[in-house]
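hi! just following up on the protien thing from before. the input was this:
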Amino acid sequence: METYENEEVESFKSFYVDDSDGWVNLRDRPNGEIIKRVDNYEVGVQMGEEGDWILLRFEDGTEGFIHNTRLKEAP
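and the predicted 3d structure came back as:
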């Protein structure tokens, strides 16, 4: 089973990108610098949040913030 910092992935919420543009920007902080582009349906694990922004970690290890209006909780 895949783990993050000795925590089982299932203990975290997972979200996927759902935006009409087909992608969103992953940012280093809320409204911050763009780290990378994340395509629709790419799933990230929630590592934290700041206000309306969710901190996610993706399969490639990249972490960053996406506004919660651009995300759906994964089943």
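DSSP finds no helices and nine strands in the chain.
Residues 29 and 65 are 6 Å apart (CA to CA).
cheers
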